[in-house]
Amino acid sequence: MRFSQASTLLALPLLAVADVPDYQAQFQEYLGQAQGYVDKVTSKILLPNRHDPVAAAEAKAGPMKMDILSLNNWKDTLYAPVEAGSTTPEEWWVLITGGNKTCFGHCGRIEAAFNETATQFAQTPGSPHTALLDCEKQPVLCNAWSAPVGALWIFEMLPEPAPINIWTKRLNMTTVTSDDFIELQKNDYKTAAKLHDGSFHPFNGQVAQYGASIPVGYVLWFFNLLPSWMFMIIVSMFSRSMMTNRMNAQMNDGRRPAATGQAAAR
Ligand SMILES: *[C@@H]1O[C@H](CO)[C@@H](O)[C@H](O)[C@H]1NC(C)=O
Ligand SMILES: *[C@@H]1O[C@H](CO)[C@@H](O)[C@H](O)[C@H]1NC(C)=O
Ligand SMILES: *[C@@H]1O[C@H](CO)[C@@H](O)[C@H](O)[C@H]1NC(C)=O
Questions:
Q1: Is the beta carbon of 217 within 6 A of some atom in ligand 1?
Q2: What angle do CA 46, 111, 207 make, to 5 degrees?
Q3: Does 151 share its domain with 21?
């Protein structure tokens, strides 16, 4: 999604209420505030899909041989090494990371440790494939997966349409080193990690089965961006509109007996 689409999406709820004549004055009042907000967001916004293909290509070609996942490439990337008819899963280790906003700046250590591990894996045949998902740059994908930052997700990829097992593992972000990852790989990770069986599972989950992961990701991302005052406006306009409708209905009810009365008198 491009920037202009993103700001249109942000403005939609406001535009919807702006259409109601009764609220136009009130809307004007909020417009200044909203304008300021939209300006602020458009300068600071976590764009839903900021993928740097050059940096990604460098990471893939470099010593880490690491893929960078994005909204558009994650599925193709994860399926890429899977051979048709294969019954042995291709193992992907994906680190869910973030930056100052999504990880409060605490993901640096785990990311460095993971990068170091990726370099070691790249030199060792038969090692897992590695990829990074940066929630700062891919907030929609992270929301779609309901993926927490600072977690390792191990994907066991089989040819479509086989169900995909994902093992999730939280590591201590203040102490983690590359050795922790290496150890996890040496000792069976299945005993240390948790099998993902939630409804947000990117392949097997109910949301994904309905093809709704990405739309849901957008919705969750969008609501995360909405400041509380915008909710207040929307709620207040809805309730006022309901009150007005009810009052109109009551007034109409009041007039009707009078009209019948007149008709009866004639
Ligand atoms: C993250 O925050 C630290 C400390 O506040 C700052 O030095 C750094 O530049 C920030 N990084 C980004 C990418 O904004
Ligand atoms: C890890 O590697 C990725 C991909 O090249 C890079 O964007 C990121 O800055 C690296 N992180 C650290 C902490 O070195
Ligand atoms: C991480 O390790 C440190 C030092 O051992 C410990 O104090 C902290 O509680 C641990 N954090 C978690 C989330 O386990």
A1: no
A2: 55
A3: no
